[in-house]
Amino acid sequence: MTRRLIILFTATICWFTAYAQSTLEEAKLLVESGDLESAIPMLEELAAASPKKGEINLLLGTAKFYQGDYSGAQQQWEAALSKKENLANLKLAELALLQYRVDDAEELIETYRSGLKRGKKVLAEDVSGDIDDRIGRVTAMLDRVEKLVIIDSINVDAEIFFRQYNLAKSTGRLLSPAEAFNGSLPAAEPTVVFETGDGRERLWAVQNDDNNFELVSAGPLYGGKWDQPTPLGTHLNEGGDANYPFLMSDGMTLYFANDGENSLGGLDIFITRRDGDSFLQPTNIGLPYNSPYNDYMLAIDEVKGIGWWATDRNRIQDMVTIYVFVPSDMRVNYPTDSPDLAERARITSYRDTWEEGKDYSPLIALARKGLPTEGGSGQATPSFALSVPGRGTLTSLSDFKNTRARGLVKQWLDQRAQLERKKEELSKLREQYRKGDTSVSGRITSGESAVVSMRKQLTQLASQIAEAER
Prior knowledge:
Layout: H1 2-33, H2 36-49, H3 54-67, H4 70-82, H5 87-98, H6 102-118, H7 125-142, E1 149-157, E2 172-175, H8 177-181, E3 193-196, E4 202-207, E5 213-218, E6 230-231, E7 242-247, E8 253-258, E9 268-275, E10 278-279, E11 283-284, E12 295-301, E13 306-311, E14 319-326, H9 341-346, H10 361-368, E15 386-388, E16 392-394, H11 403-434, H12 441-469
Antiparallel strand pairs: 1-14, 2-3, 3-4, 4-5, 5-6, 7-8, 8-9, 9-10, 9-11, 12-13, 13-14, 15-16
Helix pairs in contact: 1-2, 2-3, 3-4, 4-5, 5-6, 11-12
């Protein structure tokens, strides 16, 4: 009897081990595919059932990191580290670097390498070189954090973010490729077309033969058409993609974004200047404009004395943050020994950049004046872009000829406004969760389901609008 029990117990243990391993492999596939909502509960159950298995904490931390829950990721990676998972040192170093904690990142990398030596493993050169290079770039950039006054912060739909750039006519205008060329010229997806204030030049990005994005420009022809695009030079790419150009009114100074070898991570904003018929080697404009995420489309309106740039550093799904700032003629940097230097570089609070006692409300009002807002009496019609087969992309109510279609567009705009409010509410709940308030997890789950449902409704309405207009 005892022997049978031992055999049964051993078989049960083997079955459970095999089951746990297969479930862990399934969770890995879910994380790799981006299905974090399914992966995280599965991993949390596995972690509770196998509290000594650091591999689970390691993967759970990665899933939470991808979700934007950095506090949760750090907690899981530290748990993995306590269970002798050396890779957790590398993960924690990456997180420290994102937060500009350079000293911590260097110490964690050194610990990671020491662990590899003890385990007689070799760190892949590309991984080692990459993080060393990024630590070096962050260290150098922390020596030059610009003392920038940021007057406003706006979270907007990532697809139409550029419509919040309130440029004076003499500065130029930003257009979608469809608005600019109606399909007559090639354009990368995504990109934004910048037209100079005098209307003599348009700049944007196209996809070249190497499948990289590169900047091009074109001049106007008779009849409202535009010349074939001329490349501005692949050296602007720095081995990556170049996009989102903005040419200052001097016709010489070009701001654009690329994700090449001198980027902190993702797209960074660069500056270059015209030299005859070409452009000089670009320079990364540094912090706080850039971050380890995507930062792009910097534009400066010298008439209004206002600048804008877009970033996804705040990790809001399907949205980007536009920072509105006050440009200055001369760059002034924070002292390198400033105790809050990293917070300034990360823009922990843009209001902390304000000069004490100074009133920025007139500039804020000027930046917002005439911008599209969500519907209501006396308010401007919100900006949008709806595709109708045979008619192209329609961007205003007056573009629609069918009365029913116009009514449906109003419903679509109302639904979109509700969706934006729900996404903003969800963002606040996630922030509460990141700060340790786990009681909101149920509201986050229901909010995410509501967002999915509302997006489906918008898609259905868009189809009904197109059918009515046709």
